Amino acid sequence: MSIESKKLDFSNLIEAWPSPLVAREKVGEFSGFILNARTLANYDSRGTGPKGRIKIGRKVCYPATELVEWMRKRARAL
Predict the structure, then answer these.
(1) Whole-prediction pTM value?
(2) Alpha-carbon span 66 to 68, nearest angstrom
(3) Rounded to an integer, what distance in angstroms lies between the CA atom of residue 66 and that of residue 72?
(4) What does the pLDDT look like over 14-59, one tens digit per residue?
């Protein structure tokens, strides 16, 4: 079964998160420590990070739905 036919479902991450936004420093906690804040900063600097990021003061945040979609697109079955 291909990865496309088994569409990965990360929606439980959104349901368990108490906010519609995820601060970059909290992406580890959000993702079950799969992602690291520095990794996302690197992707953002190359323009390949999650869409819709915003900056509030000095904090960078991502809409939880966009972060999950970005994770889903990058995930692959082994």
Answers:
(1) 0.84
(2) 5
(3) 10
(4) 999 999 999 999 999 999 999 999 999 999 999 999 999 999 999 9
Residue where the block lists tokens 């690291």: 36
Strand (E) positions, the chain?
21-23, 54-56, 59-63
Per-position b or e across 24-60, b if 16+ CB within 10 A of its CB: bebbbebbeeebeeeebeeeeeeeebbeebeeeeeeb
The Cα 78–Cα 66 span in angstroms is: 24
Q: How far apart are CA 21 and CA 14, in angstroms?
A: 10
